[in-house]
């Protein structure tokens, strides 16, 4: 393949997007069903191809965590199919009349949701992003260009070929779903140049990948940066619930963006709660790093440095700080946090109100694990990621996050005075 | 002033934004009323200061068009005050519950509109942007940093001081509205560095200004690029209406982004309509440039070149093309247009449907002048501009365009399995 082929892929996507835009919800849902059927028909091929790539990754000395993320077993494959079915069941994000108005002269104006157009997905190893992203894009009437990690290229190609076949059976254009098959950074570089054809890029992966893409393109980027997530245990926090929520937020999975990184404990309940928390986290193999005040109650743990407060560990480490009341907790979160997911444990409605109003984060959790912030629990069915941007889409990015709108003004020869 | 003062302005805006976020709609509306009152009290000072700056601009040999844009007379001042009052009357864009959901485990999730935070407005001469932008920002609970053109610096300073005094009377923070008083490009350059404090930049002015800003900052930018606007006269277009709409779209004001630049005439009505159009445009002093087919009917006009189809003239020139049916019109618009405002003249519902679905533009006008695309006629009260972006906000940018949302999830000890 030569350089022009990436441009050709992008151009074909733009044409496909134009054909896709008027497709009805029924047709898009039919396509999602046919995509799932076509995938089911190549299950054995997907698993075999993936097993080969997993073996190669192992042989190349990749970490067990990376190999795990690369692997599709039967359970994972079922999950991927179920997400396609789930996204089809969502309400149509398109052609909603978002607002309307008749002006004094009788001009009728309305604002209607429409697809963004062409979405470029650039992601690392996890092959389930291939089916998730295609599902969300088709549901929202967008054409998608997929660019997964090289280590999953064959798996992603088999998945994509099946999805394309399914979509075509339902009457969608051939190029509604495309994959970049050329490995290497150069192909990504060319993709970043296609601002004429691509409406938005969504990179999924490490901070450095996202930064490299955001800085290397004129195409708008929906960014998924880190989650430095906090949980604030208010003075009245009920001990059992507080411990369970803190442990679940941190330990249910440590390597994910909505895992807890800093625990804020109100000074009024610190003496009561910290020993219980220490015991629970120790049992779960978590290393605690405390502020000066915390160390007075838990002298056995390590001291947190300034750097700890702005660290996304993605590891079994948790920083702990005692705060003098809710305002200090909110100020700490707004200063050190990443605006991803932050929670409070309390029974006080007025504390909840203050926390919810003042914490400037995509997700505010009240008496709920930070791990519950995400598309599934928010009713979005399937998502392409969790945006840390404030513009356009914030938090989980489902089908609605991939729409824009147009204004339609209907007159009868209306002129401007 | 030194370099750190721009950072200090930005930092103060961030703090003000945090205080402003919980302000009620009543309080924000009161502030808008007090701002208008305070402006009214300094009317004479505004007009005198502006007259000095207008005289300076004239003496410096500025064009009459530029001087006109700079001038505030009593009528313009009344208009500026009326816009502040109008924006106050709009529904509250904040704290709307945009969507909600209870998940099977009983976690209650809702999505609530909130301010973006800190808005940076960078604009050229027109001083009415100062009051319009402040009005839209305060209505939507955002802090704003204003940076107008050097030629209007004193006028803008008087306007801003009055608005700040009014806002403070209503209990809003002192730094909710700020202006950069240091002239020169360097101050703008420093503003572009404040990604730690500023959430979005909105440049208003020429294409080169917008491009320079978009490329020189990591802060998200809401862009206002050119309008290469089209009007398509379908085969059934009623001659009187078609001519009136074409003339109004082009001639009501030629120097604005929603003025007509290319007229598309269906081949079936070209022989009937073109002579009428030629006559009307000639009367209005408009130069026509036609495609080959047009020249066969109007041999007296100039020939359009390929460059004409992608030109935003902002001048009394209009390119004219005969198209073989609606699909060709749509394809021309999607290829050469800028996605700003494009219209159709027809009585056919099915043509309207096709045009509305397939034209990929922020505003689609049906039997209405392209000049009617904008915040006033769309019921937005007051706007900070007309976005040509597809992400976040498209078309006129009113208070709602300056909001984002947060997700709030309320549980009762809900954990992730």
Automatic annotation (TrEMBL), chains A, B:
Its main location: cytoplasm. It catalyses: L-glutamate 5-semialdehyde + phosphate + NADP(+) = L-glutamyl 5-phosphate + NADPH + H(+). It is found in: Cytoplasm. Keywords: Amino-acid biosynthesis, Cytoplasm, NADP, Oxidoreductase, Proline biosynthesis. Residues 4-282, 309-371 form the Aldehyde dehydrogenase domain. It holds the Pfam family Aldedh. Its EC number is 1.2.1.41. PANTHER family: DELTA-1-PYRROLINE-5-CARBOXYLATE SYNTHASE, GLUTAMATE SEMIALDEHYDE DEHYDROGENASE. Catalyzes the NADPH-dependent reduction of L-glutamate 5-phosphate into L-glutamate 5-semialdehyde and phosphate. The product spontaneously undergoes cyclization to form 1-pyrroline-5-carboxylate. This is Gamma-glutamyl phosphate reductase. It comes from Methylomonas aurea. The gene is proA.
């Amino acid at each position: 393949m030569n350089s022009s082929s990436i441009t050709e892929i992008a151009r074909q996507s733009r044409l496909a997007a134009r054909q896709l835009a008027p497709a009805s919800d029924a047709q898009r849902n039919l396509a999602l069903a046919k995509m799932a059927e076509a995938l089911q028909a190549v299950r054995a091929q997907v698993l075999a191809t993936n097993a080969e790539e997993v073996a190669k990754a192992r042989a190349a000395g990749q970490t067990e965590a990376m190999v795990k993320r690369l692997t599709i077993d039967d359970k994972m494959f079922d999950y991927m199919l179920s997400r396609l079915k789930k996204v089809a069941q969502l309400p149509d994000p398109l052609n909603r009349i978002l607002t309307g108005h008749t002006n004094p002269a009788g001009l009728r104006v309305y604002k209607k949701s429409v697809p963004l157009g062409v979405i470029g997905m650039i992601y690392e190893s996890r092959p389930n992003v291939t089916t998730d992203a295609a599902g969300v894009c088709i549901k929202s009437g967008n054409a998608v260009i997929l660019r997964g990690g090289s280590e999953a290229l064959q798996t992603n190609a088999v998945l994509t070929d099946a999805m394309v076949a399914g979509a075509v059976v339902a009457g969608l254009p051939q190029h509604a779903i495309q994959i970049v098959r050329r490995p290497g950074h150069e192909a990504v570089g060319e993709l970043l140049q296609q601002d004429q054809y691509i409406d938005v890029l969504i990179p999924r992966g490490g901070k450095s990948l996202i930064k490299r893409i955001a800085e290397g393109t004129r195409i708008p980027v929906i960014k998924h940066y880190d989650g430095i997530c906090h949980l604030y245990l208010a003075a009245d926090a009920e001990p059992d619930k507080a411990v369970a929520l803190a442990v679940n937020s941190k330990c249910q999975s440590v390597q994910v963006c909505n895992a807890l990184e800093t625990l804020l404990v109100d000074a009024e309940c610190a003496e009561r709660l910290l020993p219980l928390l220490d015991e629970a986290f120790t049992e779960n193999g978590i290393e605690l790093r405390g502020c000066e005040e915390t160390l007075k109650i838990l002298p056995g743990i390590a001291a947190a440095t300034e750097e700890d407060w702005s660290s996304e560990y993605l590891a079994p480490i948790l920083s702990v700080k005692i705060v003098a009341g809710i305002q200090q907790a909110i100020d700490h979160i707004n200063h050190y946090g990443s605006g991803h997911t932050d929670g409070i444990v309390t029974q006080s409605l007025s504390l909840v109100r203050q926390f919810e109003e003042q914490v400037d984060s995509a997700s505010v959790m009240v008496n709920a694990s930070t791990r519950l912030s995400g598309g599934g629990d928010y009713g979005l069915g399937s998502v392409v990621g969790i945006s840390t941007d404030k513009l356009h889409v914030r938090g989980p990015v489902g089908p609605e996050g991939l729409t824009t709108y147009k204004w339609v003004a209907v007159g009868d020869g209306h002129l401007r005075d």
